[in-house]
User: Which sequence fits this backbone?
C-alpha cells in the first residue's frame, strides 16, 4: 500500500480522534481531576490543618495525588481500541506503530496532564503554598506529567490484553515513577528555600526527552505482544 | 553469534546443556557455601568497631551483588529473547526472576538485621536499601506480569519487555535515590570505613560471593529445566526421560 | 577459631540475635526456593508419567476392542 499521508497527518489524526472521544464523554476528563481534588482534601483532614505543616508536605501530596490520578486514565488508554479491534488494524497498517502510539500518549497527556497543571493554583491555595513554590509546582507538573503518561503507557500496553490488568498495571508502573517523584518534589522543596532549582528541572527534561524517544518503541512492542 | 546459539534454540539440546552444567554449579555451591559460612562465622576475625555483628556482611554483600547480577543477566536473556526470538531465552528470564527476587529479599532482611544494632533501627531510608527495595518491586512486577497471562508465549515476551524497561530505569532509579538520600539526610551512612577491607575478611567474603553466584546459577538451571519440561511436556524426548530415570 | 567456647559462638559477642536471625532467614529462603524448584520437577515429571500411562491404557483398550 502506498502511503498517502504524511507522518504528521497520521500523528495529528490519531491525537485528534482520541481527544474528540474524550471530549464527548466529559467524565473521562473530569473524574481524574475530582479524584485529585478529593485526595488533596483528605491529607489536611488526616494530618491536621496546621498551615506550616501543610506547606511543608504540599509538594509530596500534590505529586502523589498526580501519580494516582494519571494512573486512573491509563487503563483506558488502549482498552477500547483493543476491544473493538482497531488496535489490531493499527498494528497491521503500513504506518509505523510507534508514531500512532505517540499520538495516543500525547492525547492522554492533554486529557489528564494539562487540566492538572491548570488546576494547580487552586490546590496551592488549599495547601497554603506560596507563589514561588506554586511556580515550581506548575513547572515540574508541566515536565513531569507527560513523562508519567509515557512510562505509564508501557505498563498499559503490556496489560491491555489481560482481563484484570488495572491493578497489575499500577504495580508495574509505580516503581518506575519513583525518579520523577524524587526530582519533582525536590525541585519544589528547593524553591521554597528560594534556591535555584533549574538542575532538577533539567534532569526532568532530560528524562522526558529519553522517554519521548524510547518509550514509543517499548509501547509498540508491548502492544504487539498483547494483540498476538 | 547465531551459529553458536542455534543448536541451543532446540529445547532438547538446551535441556542437555543444563544437565551437564548443573553438577559443576551444584558442587561449587555446596563447597563454597560450607567453607564460606564456617570461615565467615567462626574463623574470620571480629571487626574492631562493629565486633561480631559485622559477620552479616558475609551474606549481605553477596546477596546484594547477586541481586543486581541476576537482574542484569535476566535483562540480557530478555534482549536475546526479543532480538533473536529464542523461546529458551524467554524461559531463562522466567527461571531467573524468582531466584533474583529471593536473593533481593535476603539482601533486604540481612540489611535490616544489620541496621538494627548498627544504626539503631530496622529500617532506615538509606540509598542502597531503598534502591534494593525498588529492585524487589521490579522483580515481583516481572513475575506477576508473567503469571497474569494465560498464553505463556505472550507472557514470556511481555515479561522480557518489562525486564528491559526495568534495566534501563534501574540506573536512573539508583542515581535518583542516592541523590535524594544525600539531600534529605545530610550525613550518609557508609557501610565500610574508609580503610580498605582486610584480607582476613576479604577472602571469606569472596568465597561467599562465589557461593551465592553458584547458588543462583544452580537454582536457575533447575528452574530452566523445569520450564523446558513444562513446555515440551508432550514431546517424545520428554517421554524417553521417564524410561531412563 | 575466634571463639573460646560453643556458647561464645552462639552469643556472637552479644550480637547473636541479629547474626543468627540473618543467617537463619537466609538459609530458610535459599532452602525454600531450592525445595520448591525440586518439587516442581517432581510434579512435572509425575504429570508426564500420568499422561504416558493414560495413553498406554487407551492404546490397550483399543487393542482389546479390536480383538
Assistant:
Amino acid at each position: 500500500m502506498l502511503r498517502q499521508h504524511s507522518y504528521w497527518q497520521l500523528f495529528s489524526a490519531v491525537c485528534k480522534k482520541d481527544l474528540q472521544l474524550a471530549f464527548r464523554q466529559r467524565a473521562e476528563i473530569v473524574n481524574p481531576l475530582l479524584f485529585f481534588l478529593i485526595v488533596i482534601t483528605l491529607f489536611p483532614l488526616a494530618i491536621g490543618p496546621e498551615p506550616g505543616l501543610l506547606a511543608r508536605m504540599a509538594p509530596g501530596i500534590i505529586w502523589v495525588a498526580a501519580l494516582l490520578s494519571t494512573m486512573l486514565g491509563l487503563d483506558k488508554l488502549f482498552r477500547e481500541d483493543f476491544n473493538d479491534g482497531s488496535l489490531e488494524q493499527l498494528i497491521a497498517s503500513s504506518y509505523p506503530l510507534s508514531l500512532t502510539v505517540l499520538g495516543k500518549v500525547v492525547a492522554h497527556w492533554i486529557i489528564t496532564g494539562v487540566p492538572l497543571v491548570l488546576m494547580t493554583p487552586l490546590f496551592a491555595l488549599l495547601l497554603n503554598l506560596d507563589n514561588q513554590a506554586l511556580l515550581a509546582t506548575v513547572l515540574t507538573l508541566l515536565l513531569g506529567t507527560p513523562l508519567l503518561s509515557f512510562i505509564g503507557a508501557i505498563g498499559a500496553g503490556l496489560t491491555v490484553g489481560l482481563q484484570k490488568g488495572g491493578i497489575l498495571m499500577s504495580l508495574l508502573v509505580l516503581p518506575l515513577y519513583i525518579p520523577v517523584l524524587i526530582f519533582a518534589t525536590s525541585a519544589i522543596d528547593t524553591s521554597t528555600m528560594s534556591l535555584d532549582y533549574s538542575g532538577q528541572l533539567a534532569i526532568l527534561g532530560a528524562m522526558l526527552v529519553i522517554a519521548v524517544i524510547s518509550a514509543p518503541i517499548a509501547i509498540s512492542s508491548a502492544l504487539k505482544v498483547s494483540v498476538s | 553469534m547465531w551459529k553458536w546459539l542455534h543448536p541451543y534454540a532446540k529445547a532438547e539440546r538446551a535441556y542437555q546443556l543444563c544437565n551437564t552444567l548443573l553438577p559443576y554449579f551444584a558442587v561449587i555451591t555446596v563447597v563454597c557455601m560450607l567453607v564460606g559460612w564456617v570461615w565467615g562465622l567462626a574463623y574470620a576475625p571480629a571487626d574492631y568497631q562493629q565486633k561480631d555483628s559485622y559477620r552479616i556482611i558475609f551474606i549481605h554483600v553477596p546477596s546484594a551483588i547477586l541481586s543486581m547480577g541476576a537482574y542484569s543477566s535476566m535483562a540480557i536473556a530478555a534482549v536475546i529473547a526479543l532480538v533473536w526470538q529464542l523461546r529458551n531465552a524467554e524461559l531463562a528470564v522466567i527461571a531467573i526472576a524468582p531466584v533474583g527476587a529471593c536473593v533481593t529479599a535476603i539482601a533486604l532482611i540481612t540489611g535490616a538485621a544489620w541496621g538494627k544494632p548498627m544504626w539503631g533501627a530496622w529500617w532506615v531510608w538509606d540509598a542502597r536499601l531503598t534502591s534494593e527495595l525498588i529492585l524487589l518491586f521490579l522483580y515481583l512486577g516481572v513475575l506477576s506480569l508473567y503469571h497474569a497471562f494465560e498464553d505463556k508465549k505472550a507472557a514470556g515476551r511481555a515479561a522480557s519487555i518489562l525486564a528491559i524497561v526495568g534495566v534501563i530505569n534501574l540506573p536512573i532509579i539508583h542515581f535518583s535515590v542516592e541523590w535524594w538520600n544525600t539531600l534529605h539526610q545530610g550525613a550518609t551512612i557508609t557501610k565500610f570505613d574508609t580503610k580498605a577491607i582486610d584480607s582476613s575478611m576479604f577472602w571469606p567474603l569472596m568465597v561467599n560471593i562465589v557461593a551465592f553466584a553458584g547458588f543462583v546459577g544452580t537454582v536457575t538451571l533447575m528452574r530452566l529445566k523445569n520450564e523446558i519440561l513444562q513446555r515440551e511436556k508432550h514431546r517424545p524426548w520428554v517421554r524417553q526421560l521417564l524410561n531412563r530415570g | 577459631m575466634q571463639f573460646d567456647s560453643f556458647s561464645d559462638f552462639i552469643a556472637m559477642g552479644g550480637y547473636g540475635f541479629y547474626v543468627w536471625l540473618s543467617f537463619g532467614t537466609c538459609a530458610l529462603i535459599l532452602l525454600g526456593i531450592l525445595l520448591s524448584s525440586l518439587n516442581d520437577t517432581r510434579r512435572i515429571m509425575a504429570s508426564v508419567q500420568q499422561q504416558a500411562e493414560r495413553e498406554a491404557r487407551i492404546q490397550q483398550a483399543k487393542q482389546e476392542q479390536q480383538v
In short: Helices of chain C lie at 6-11, 16-66. The mean pLDDT of chain C is 85.
